[in-house]
Amino acid sequence: MRESRIGLWIALGLVVGGTLLLLMNLNGFGEQEAAARVALFAMGGAVFLGVFAQDRRRWWAAIPGCALVGIALAALVDPVAGGWGGLAFLGTIGVGFALVYLSDRDQWWALIPAGALLTVGMVSALPEEWRGGTLFLGLAATFAVVALAAPPAGGRMSWAWFPATALAVLGALRLTGVDDLAGLLWPVALIVVGLFLLLRYLARRRI
To answer: Which residues form the domain of 106?
Structure first.
């Protein structure tokens, strides 16, 4: 039953999409061709998202589905607010990766492109002076979410705290305008981490 519904979604998408393409090639939309292109992308995205909604095991369908919807949204947003077109496109793709994780918690890797795309999309809409710091902080938040999102199979992803912390420090330095200190802080940070790992190794050897 589920397979037949997925086939129905695909069949309807092909029929409607083919009809729109034919009319566009025949100049059947005239001045409304741009709107027809938006509708075509949105419909293509709806088909993929319909496949994903019918069977969550087909998580891959959420990515092209959201990408096509993102193209349609960007085309609608750009003429009104050009600075937000990138956020509409990249952010929607990021939502697609987030749906992958929500459909299967074992797919924790999807959190990284989800957060990265949402961050880059948000940065594209900000003034130039805010972009660098916001980019680092957004990526730091992404890895923090990965660290907190323990996979159902068990285990820990505490490794994600290391890039999260480093990126957060870089973001804070960039936003406060003292990023020149990074040339001094990075060597010190490496020494501290190295000493910590060395002391932990020696402590385990004693046990």
So the answer is: 1-125
- What would the two tokens of residue 56 be? 């969550």
In sequence order, the 6+-apart residues with CB closer than 8 A to the CB of 67 are 45, 92, 93, 96
- Measured CA to CA, the distance from residue 158 to residue 93 in angstroms comes to 26
Closest C-alpha among 11, 121, 183 to residue 3: 11
Torsion angle defined by CA atoms of residues 180, 185, 187 and 189, in that order, rounded to the nearest 10 degrees: -150
pLDDT digits 0-9 by tens, 13-59: 556 555 555 555 556 555 556 677 788 788 888 888 888 988 888 89
Dig out the tokens for 24 from the structure.
């566009």
The tally of domains found in the chain comes to 1
Is residue 176 included in any domain, yes or no? no
